[in-house]
Design brief:
Keywords: Coiled coil, Disulfide bond, Oxidoreductase, Redox-active center, Signal
CATH superfamily of the largest domain: Glutaredoxin
Pfam families: DSBA (PF01323), ScsC_N (PF18312)
GO molecular function: disulfide oxidoreductase activity
Largest sheet: 5 strands, mixed
CATH topology of the largest domain: Glutaredoxin
Radius of gyration: 26 Å
Protein name: Outer membrane protein
Structural class: alpha+beta
InterPro entries: DSBA-like_thioredoxin_dom, ScsC_N, Thioredoxin-like_sf, Thioredoxin_CS, Thioredoxin_domain
Shape: elongated
Number of domains: 2
CATH architecture of the largest domain: 3-Layer(aba) Sandwich
Length: about 260
Amino acid sequence: MRLALFPAAAWRALAVAGVVFAAPAAPLAADAFTAQQKAGVEKIVHDYLLANPEVIREAIDELKKREEAAELAMREKAVNDLGDKIGNSANQAVVGNPDGDVTLVEFFDYNCGYCKQSLASVQKLIEGDPKLRVVLKDFPILGPDSVETAHVATAARLQLSREKFWEFHKKLLSTRGHIGKAQALAAAKEVGADMDRLEKDANSAETQAALKDVATQAEQLKFDGTPSWVIGKEAVVGGLPYAQLKAKIDNLRKCGKTAC
């Protein structure tokens, strides 16, 4: 516990116990106290926390706020460092308006339950906002089937038009149950993909490089789950409801930030 934040009541109690010293300019080392003073401090702290257990919760809440603030700052720096690579890379799919004034980037996994839930929100945003540009980045983190699916999806992106890929993406992501290579190939076939080319492209060096590029970006952004989003300078991990996504997009247009 930092001395500067030690409760005033506890300071008074320490004084009564005979542990009295001037406010230090720097934290005191443990050997600055005698054995008797150390015992007095420990007892006062022990008794104070037992009498005021809410202090522990307050400290935990404060620590959580500081950690979240540090994480947000770290991700914002990563967004700045990555710059145009996040929203304008050859290794991504673009749906919605390719020339839109706001870009929403989603890192997703086809086997992610929250990504499946988010599909309806993304689709609603695109349908209701003709100026929205959406970038989809395959980030397969949920096992070998997700990786194989991402290979097929990346190969599909290489040959399908933007509209056809969006149809493929919606079809595959809305598939019930676990998704693997078989389901991805079936979805690609349904939208008219060249299956011979698809099989070849799925195992190509270009596909491997594309997925590695996305994984590298995700690592820099400290994304450890899906869906993860980049909106303006903000990077967020976790499912976001439609209203929250829309508010961030609206704010970005209004004041250049996701929160005005």
